[in-house]
Each structure stands twice: as structure tokens, then as C-alpha cells.
Amino acid sequence: MIHGEVSPGFEPVARQLEAQLARGGGGAVTVYHRGRPVVDVWGGVRDEAGTPWQRDTMAVSYSTTKGVIATALHVLADRGQLDYDAPVARYWPEFARAGKAGITVRDVLAHRAGLFNIRDLIDDARRMLDWEHMVEALAAAAPAPVPAGATAYQALTWGYLVGELVRRVSGRPVPDFLAAELAAPLGLDGLYIGAPPGELARAARLIGSPARRPRTGQGEATFAAARRRRQRVFGAVERALRLIGHPVDFERAAAALAPRGISSFDFSSDEVLAACIPAANGLFPARSLARLYATLAAGGTLDGVRLLSPATVARATEIQSHGYDQVTIFRMRWRLGYHRVGTLRGVPPRAFGHFGWGGSGAWADPDHQLALGFVVNTGRGTPIGDLRILRLGTAALAGARRAR
Predict the structure, then answer these.
(1) Active-site positions?
(2) Cα(222)–Cα(228) distance, rounded to whole angstroms?
(3) With the C-alpha atoms ordered 168, 298, 336, 391, is the resulting torsion angle positive or negative?
(4) Inter-CA distances, 354 with 45, 46, 344, Å
(5) 121-144 pLDDT, tens digit each
(6) Quick one: 220 exposed, middle or buried, by C-beta within 10 A (0-12, 13-18, 19+)?
(7) Which of 56, 150, 160, 375 is the least buried, fewest Cβ under 10 Å from its Cβ?
(8) Rounded to whole angstroms, what are the CA distances from 90 to 73, 171, 259?
(9) Domains (ranges, CATH) in the chain?
(10) pLDDT tens digits along 273-329
């Protein structure tokens, strides 16, 4: 059973969420059309104890976080405090080491900096809880080559790169900047990358996550066997794709996505949610994501609040690459911190956003004045979402087209 409000014509979005939650877990979806909310529904449970999902429940949203921190950086660019084509080292001098002096802010945002390999950057996933350790390691790291016209998704490192730019340019930690410059002006109830302790009671916890299961010797053996099976399957897929000229490399993908110890790293624990991991641990309700993207869909201003100029939105959402991404293996059509948006009925040409592991996501479509935010606490999906957000997006786009 779901709760909330739905405007006429958008009922299929709510029905789609209800069908998804019938399989377990909890979640919420909010849709804005022409600057106003037309869907705001939630349901299911927010933890394995069966606690009901509430109107203000927030969920860890993995890479959906990237779109939020990217928007924060665009606020600084809009104010003239940051130049996309300037070297990162202009704002972060230590970054120039190991051959990185020529890497620009644009390169970082568009996943062209070659700093995707977190597996060799840190010795354990828990290092991600230590901001200073991560930014010092990235400043010292040498980039890997990225072919011309291609990109290499910096799945976990990207957030520290962009977050440190926010910190260096603004003089404020990422959580403080988000609270003052995004959440407060737009009236967003919950937009955290590094949540305050008093807000953690509202957080949904992951259901079915391997990191939340007790480990035994037998469990470790089962995990290792499953990993070997995946390696065999991936090896066969990789060989097949290479025969048709696809630049797939699952070892490179694993280096970007899976630091040592990631299988026991619980992204919905209090300790992790209180840390600042701007590529992966944003804690959001669906309505805050949708309202933020509704602002972008409207050219940067919503309800009289100007977040960005139309010119900055246009620059931030201009496609930077058309080739295959070397990590995700898809044509991502990267913008400056956002990627293209798919639905089951095609790709809206100007839509942009960011999806996340576990199924969450948020996006904007200026052509239909449409924005969607989705959070959920079950499923693994892919690094860039799964079919659930595609189905919700399809229903939302159909509603907007009917209204049009």
C-alpha cells in the first residue's frame, strides 16, 4: 500500500511504485511538472524490522549523490568563482603532482581525468570515511590514460575531487555548503552528504545488503564462489563484446567500483551516513531530489528562488562526450556531472540527471518541464540504476505528454 498525493494523469507513476514495492522493501517517488509537484508517494518498509516508510524518510542514494554535488559546484561557477576550463590545480595546488597539472575542472566533471582506480588508491574501503586521507591520496595519484573521445567513470573518487573543489573555492565543508546554498534557498527537507546525528532516525536502512549480514566461514566461502562465477560470466561477455569492437574491460570497472573491503562496507550504517562521500552516500528524500531537479528543468529558478542562471544550466548540461565510457561500458553522454536519461520509450534528448547503484535516481527534462526523484532501499542494480527508475520515468514522461 502506498501513501501520498497524485495529480490526475500521473496515476501510472504511483501504480508503478506500488507494483515495485509489492516485491519488498520501501521507497518513494516525487515528480514535478511545470514547477509543481504532481506525484508525491511513498510506501513499504524502511528497515528489516518492518518499520513503515514515512513521508519524511530519507534513503542512501549511492551515485545519485553525484548530481547533487555537481549542482553545488555549478553554483560556484555561476557566481564567477570557478572556471570549468581552468586547471584543478588553480584551486587545489597540491593536485598538480604526478602529471596532473593540465587536468581541468571540466575533465574531472566529465570523467576524463583518469582517476577512476580506487582499488589501488586505498587499501580498504573504510578509508573513504577519512576525507583528508582521500584528498591527499588523489593529489598524489598519477592518472591513467583515457582515449580521446572516451571517458572513464570515476565511480567513487569523483565525489572527493568535486567535493574538494567545493571546499577549496567556497571555504566551507561540503555539508555546510549544501545546507546553506541548496537546501535552505529551495526549502529542501533533507539533502545531506554527511548527515547530522539528529537526522539519522529518519534514515531508511538497506534491506538484503551483503554488508548487513553476519559473516561466517561458510558465508565467506559462498561469497568467494559467487565471485568466481561472476568472473567466468564477465569473462565470456567481455570476449564477445571485444569481438565486435567494444572497449569493455571488467577489470578496469572493478578497479573503479570495488575497493578492497567494499563487500562489508555498510552504506546505510550511522557511521557511513555521517561521513561525507560525495559520490555515493547522499541521504535524501525523493521530494528534495525532485525539487532540486525541477529547479534545473526550469532553467535554474523555481518559485522565485534563483539557484543558477539559464546560461549556467545550459553550460552544465551540454554533452561532453559521445563515445563509450571505459568503466560503465555504455555511451553515457556525460554532461558536467550528469548523464543522459533513458526510459522504456526512448531517450529524451535534453534530459539529464544521475542514477545510482541500488536503483535510485533523479533527473530533469527541460523540454517537458519535468523532474523526478526516486529513492529506495532494496536491490543492487548497476552503477547507474536499474529498470525500476526507467519504468517510473516512462510513466512520468507519458503523463507529461498527455498534459501537454
Answers:
(1) 63
(2) 10
(3) positive
(4) 24, 23, 17
(5) 999 999 999 999 999 999 999 999
(6) exposed
(7) 56
(8) 15, 15, 29
(9) 1-404 (3.40.710.10)
(10) 999 999 999 999 999 999 999 999 999 999 999 999 999 999 999 999 998 898 988
